[in-house]
Q: What sequence folds into this?
């Protein structure tokens, strides 16, 4: 947490806002904020300040590789919504707008926060769209193992899935620390991409699929000393997020051993590079499938080029890029990418996105809000 007072944090942000937007009237605005804090103990951002701050948070996200497009972020100010019905319907609108028929639009929606003196909204989901995970009585895992704890929590609320590998979890939300509600996400709102390979038709046997839009919903957006714990955000997927991580990780869907068997590769010795061979084929399949369906997806080579262009543009503005190297460099073909050969400072700037403990989990010993989070990464 910052050691600066709320007014000092507000002053830092608003000074940057007025400077970068080339506006006058900073001193008048700061005096108004000072009086508002003296009376209410807090202050409220204007919609224009909120929009700028959200874009700046993306620009400052140390772990995010997709920052070249920060200016194009669509920010939806929904701080006026108060009921579960209004908020759940609005999240579905966010999904519709962001999906855009497959031409994904980077979108962020901000809901009410106690820091501005409003009844606070919390979404409990890691992502608005996420597949459930089940552990059967025989120990068999079905679905996404990463979702096992949250799936159990949803079931404790009364939700029940079909038990397939790709059951969509419900939206779980709470307003003003009131009752926790779960709402099924209409299937027609979700664009899913079946994963196939143009040269290996047997891959279709696995019936793999993935949703088109990664809407991260467990992050805290911080602007000018104010926290917005409910600010779902989406970019679009990078190829390795789906292929190398969601499908390839041993602790996720773990499809590489099955694929190796289909390819008649020996898995007895890792030195045979069977994992490398199957992972490349899986990446080809995910890339082909998204392109075939007309859904936005960036490969890791293009993403690296885009991030280097972002660095170049920031340097031309006299701004030093802050970045976490181990998050910026993708998990596949690392040394072939220009980002692999770079170094950056890793200072956490404000505004930014931060981890926070989900309301349905017990607080962790280390405050998660001290760690900057990449809103663009879905893992």
A:
């Amino acid at each position: 947490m910052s050691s600066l007072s709320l007014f000092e944090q507000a002053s830092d942000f608003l000074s940057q806002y007025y400077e970068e937007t080339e506006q006058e009237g900073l001193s008048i605005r700061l005096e108004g904020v000072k009086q508002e804090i003296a009376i209410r103990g807090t202050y409220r951002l204007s919609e224009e300040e909120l929009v700028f701050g959200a874009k700046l948070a993306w620009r400052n996200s140390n772990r995010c590789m997709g920052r070249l497009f920060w200016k194009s972020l669509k920010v939806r100010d929904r701080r006026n919504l108060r009921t579960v019905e209004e908020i759940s319907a609005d999240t579905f609108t966010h999904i519709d707008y962001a999906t855009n028929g497959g031409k994904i639009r980077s979108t962020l929606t901000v809901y009410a926060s106690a820091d501005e003196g409003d009844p606070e909204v919390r979404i409990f989901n890691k992502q608005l769209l996420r597949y459930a995970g089940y552990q059967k009585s025989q120990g068999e895992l079905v679905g996404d193992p990463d979702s096992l704890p949250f799936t159990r929590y949803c079931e404790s609320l009364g939700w029940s899935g079909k038990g397939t590998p790709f059951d969509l979890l419900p939206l779980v939300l709470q307003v003003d620390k009131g009752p926790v509600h779960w709402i099924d996400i209409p299937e027609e709102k979700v664009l899913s991409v079946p994963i196939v390979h143009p040269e290996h038709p047997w891959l279709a046997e696995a019936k793999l699929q993935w949703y088109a839009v990664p809407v991260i919903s467990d992050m805290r957006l911080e602007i000018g000393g104010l926290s917005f714990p409910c600010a779902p955000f989406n970019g679009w997927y990078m190829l390795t997020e789906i292929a190398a991580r969601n499908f390839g990780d041993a602790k996720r869907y773990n499809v590489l051993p099955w694929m190796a068997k289909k390819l008649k590769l020996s898995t007895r010795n890792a030195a045979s590079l069977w994992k490398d061979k199957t992972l490349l084929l899986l990446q080809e399949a995910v890339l082909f499938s998204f392109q075939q369906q007309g859904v936005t997806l960036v490969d890791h080579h293009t993403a690296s080029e885009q991030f280097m262009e972002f660095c170049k543009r920031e340097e031309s503005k006299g701004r030093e890029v802050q970045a976490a190297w181990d998050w910026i460099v993708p998990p596949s073909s690392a040394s072939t990418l220009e980002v692999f050969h770079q170094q950056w400072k890793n200072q956490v700037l404000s505004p930014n996105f931060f981890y926070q403990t989900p309301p349905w989990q017990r607080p962790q010993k280390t405050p998660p809000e001290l760690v900057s989070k990449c809103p663009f990464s879905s893992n």
About this structure: The chain has a mean pLDDT of 95.
